[in-house]
Queue: 2 jobs
Job 1
Amino acid sequence: MMLVVITGPMFSGKTTELIRRIERQMIAGRRVVIYKPTIDTRYHPSSVISHNGLKINALVVPPDEEGVKRIASETINYDVIGIDEAQFFPSILAEELNKLAIEKMIVVSALNLDFKGEPFETTMKLLAYADKVVSLTAICKVCGKPATRTQRLINGKPAPRDSPRVLVGGSETYEARCRKHHIVP
Ligand code: ADP
Ligand code: MG
């Protein structure tokens, strides 16, 4: 079938677009699932509720090789496989999905860049393997122009370069910014 990759900064609507695409498949009677890494605690652990109340089967897996193997081993149960926050998985995920996409419809949402503006390796590979890329932008919180980057803030100030790559947070910690207003001290 095919591999669709949805990418962009935080707040660009990646998860919304993932749900929209999976939901259409579900309505058409396809067997669907969405996997999420355990690291992302912002959502209810075992289901994704879409805007129109449809409940999508969602499974949480650890973002390591074991988790990737689990996803690959369960594909017999599904026609369509969605993965949210794919950048948190090791890049072996991209190789596995590249193979699975021969038979299955795979839809993946992945952050483009980390808070320093550096690419996530897993996302880079997914984009290269993709049959279709959906590139989304948010709105820059400073100037209102299209935002392609994610600004990390600590006590309201740009986070320094040496802070850890993974730091789960929402709008108190992150802002969408354009290239000009993305700052890494
Ligand atoms: P993502 O998965 O890419 O982080 P979501 O699908 O979870 O995005 O949510 C995107 C939502 O974030 C938008 O629908 C909007 O309501 C909200 N939002 C918050 N800040 C911004 C911003 N700066 N630009 C655009 N949308 C924003
Ligand atoms: Mg999201």
Job 2
Amino acid sequence: MPFRALIVDKAEDGTVTPAIQSIEEDRLPEAPGESVTVDVSHTTLNYKDGLCLTGGGGLVRKYPHVPGIDFAGTVRSSEVAEFSPGDPVVLTGWRVGEAWWGGYAERARVKGKWLVPLPEGLSAAQAMAVGTAGFTAMLAVMALEDHGLKPENGPVLVTGAAGGVGSVATAILGRLGYEVVAVTGRPETGDYLRRLGAARILPRDEINETVKRPLESETWAGCVDAVGGAMLARVLGQMKYGCSVASVGLAGGAALPATVIPFLLRGVNLLGIDSVMRPRADRIAAWGRIARDLDMDLLDSMTVAATLEELPALGPKILEGGVKGRVVVAL
Ligand code: NDP
């Protein structure tokens, strides 16, 4: 039976165009190693999907291509012993949707070892409401905890707070009892962020300026940073002694116009967070924490539904910082 796939193709003049096509299973490229074919029930939209839908960032090298860096669904057929037809599974990362065909199709074929069993207590739709953005937010919180973060240490900053990573980080930290200070460039999202768990909103303009002094008042006990650039440089100089920033994203830029003074004089730590090549054991642990520490009603409140047809328009929108919270697509 043919199935629907959102296929992005590149014309000779370099134009990248997404279109929904009906394709047969034999068009699914082989996966590297023993594979599992999945009936995809849900997918989502991340910043990287915006790049893959529009041909940005040089992420997709081979066309035609099916984007979608995350998906959830049930196993259709399996070459690995761990999975059997009907098993609910979730996939994030491993360059699926970039180097390999991804979740913007009703069927996907991937390396079996890349799949994680759908965590107990989460539906496929909830797993996609979390998606790479939320999974990475959880990894960031776990890294901060591993470096000593505790609620009594003081306020924790979340940058890019109204975006996907930021919304989930705010909700998790709020639920864990932290005083969350949410940085946003969209003042209209203030009520939304407070409902998620932010104690205070910090307008982006107040923290987005270039570093003038390498050290400012010691203010933050931790930070989940989705923005990078000038904002991250500024935050480093405002960290309390010995505290850590989890660097997750670059929505505000890849450059880091900072000095090393916060590292040398305050023992500040900059923790790199990668979700893509993360070992499987960490993935299972993080999904377990998500099922435990993320309030599912709050997750619902930060999620909007979209269709496969709407994804081509949503791609450019997320790149402009115009998507609030998380998007779930039922296939
Ligand atoms: P979103 O677009 O949903 O969120 C990004 C948010 O950053 C926006 O909502 C906006 O928040 C803020 N923002 C956007 N542009 C700027 C700017 N120019 N200056 C300051 N703030 C800005 O994306 P995601 O949450 O999905 O991803 C966030 C980042 O994390 C991306 O760079 C993404 O590539 C990265 N990422 C990295 C992962 C990893 O493994 N390391 C995994 C997942 C994501 P507001 O409106 O509140 O200001």
